[in-house]
Amino acid sequence: MLIFAHRGCHKDVPENTLEAFRIAKELGADGIETDVRADKNGTPILFHDRWAKNGALLSALDIAELRGICGYHVPTLEEALTEMPDIIWNLEIKLPGAVDWSGPLIKRFADQIKIIVSSFVHQEVVDCVRKTGLEGGLLIAHRPLDPPAIFAGMPPQVSTLIWNFETTDAEALKAVGDAGKHNMIYGLCDRKDLSEIAEGGVSAIITDFPERFIAKSL
Fold first, then answer.
1. What is the domain partition of the chain in residue ranges?
2. How far apart, in whole angstroms, are the C-alpha atoms of residue 170 and residue 175?
3. Does 48 qualify as catalytic in the annotation?
4. Which of 18, 52, 191, 218 has CA 20 to 30 A from 1's CA?
5. CB of 78 within 8 A of CB of 105?
6. What is the CATH T-level fold of the domain 2-217, as seen in this structure?
7. Which residue in 48, 73, 122, 142 is the catalytic one?
8. Which residues contact 121 (CB under 8 A, 6 or more apart)?
9. Taking the model in full, what pTM does it have?
């Protein structure tokens, strides 16, 4: 089972920063989950919210302005992939139409780095895997009546369902596994959470507390 640090390891540093990513890697995380948006110039950047802390929309700011408002170095996607090519990246695409400005960059790194693209906007995942050949994951926050049916009509590279821990169960996870697909879970806080669903089949978790799941940190 792979362990992804959600926005890096950000207990003592800002989330989605190069420092948070380095700490996660040093801790022993297998991968990093991060959020891909764009500044007003279409530069892919790693930032969760669609507005800065002063309320300004990212779509109205360039990267330098955003860094000034935040008071720390908000990284571009290119910086992060260049800085850490030897870890698995789960890139959550936050915006519809993002493949037009992020796809070429992601494709450039695709042969060098293990990358999974994911989104709550499922069409973004489909468009991105078709253009890049990468593996894709569908983020969901609900418990579908028929989980494997979500994959109907999807490219084969869309191979993973990424669940909210609070809305899944072992039966649903097993149904996905039996269909030849994979399960990732986000929102787990400790090993007790994992024990509740592990029998359903989990290939990876995404957590804000990677140190609680990495054996060498216990």
1. 2-217
2. 9
3. yes
4. 18
5. yes
6. TIM Barrel (3.20.20)
7. 48
8. 93, 95, 96
9. 0.95
